[in-house]
Specification:
It is built from ten helices and no strands. It is mainly α and 176 residues long.
């Protein structure tokens, strides 16, 4: 079975990049964590997950990884590089879901507490930091694990702004 290719990235100069960067910076400042590394990482995450095929990665057989347990099983297949990428994606997936769509976790076939996703997201980023040690990226993933809940709060703020009618009007003006 052919595994679908990932969609092309959104170009650097695209207005969506500017919009997410500004919203993310403002939301992190709102929650008292104006950390440049975290803001840059979360902005990239939002841009990457704009396309659903990036949110739902696939395993070697082409099956979508939709649940934490799917990621954990997949992380045991392959080499260390594959395990790292799977744990990184689990951290990203958990952060995105709890930050932007926590209500969806309770509506799924297997309803799950957001706390479950937080715990596994933190652990996934911690695992990536251990795999990356002593590379400079290890510090970023340690920081993501340590401040996971704050990143979730910032995304909750950002989601509120995105859903607000006034901000929707501004976004339409910026993107047109």
């Amino acid at each position: 079975m052919d595994v679908p290719r990932r969609p092309a990235p959104i170009p650097e100069g695209h207005p969506l990049r500017h919009l997410f960067r500004r919203l993310t910076e403002a939301s992190f400042e709102q929650v008292g964590m104006p950390d440049r590394d975290l803001m840059t990482y979360v902005t990239g995450l939002l841009i990457d997950f704009t396309h659903v095929d990036n949110l739902y990665r696939r395993d070697a057989t082409g099956q979508r990884l939709e649940y934490v347990v799917d990621f954990l099983i997949e992380s045991r297949r392959g080499d260390t590089a594959h395990a790292r990428e799977t744990h990184k994606h689990l951290g990203d997936f958990a952060l995105f879901m709890v930050g932007m769509f926590p209500e969806s976790l309770r509506r799924r076939w297997r309803a799950v507490s957001p706390d479950y996703y937080v715990a596994h997201g933190k652990q996934a980023y911690s695992t990536v930091s251990e795999i990356d040690s002593p590379k400079p990226s290890a510090a970023l993933f340690r920081k993501l694990a340590a401040h996971f809940e704050t990143c979730v709060l910032a995304l909750n703020v950002e989601k509120t702004w995105i859903r607000d009618a006034f901000y929707q009007y501004l976004m339409r003006q910026l993107l047109s």
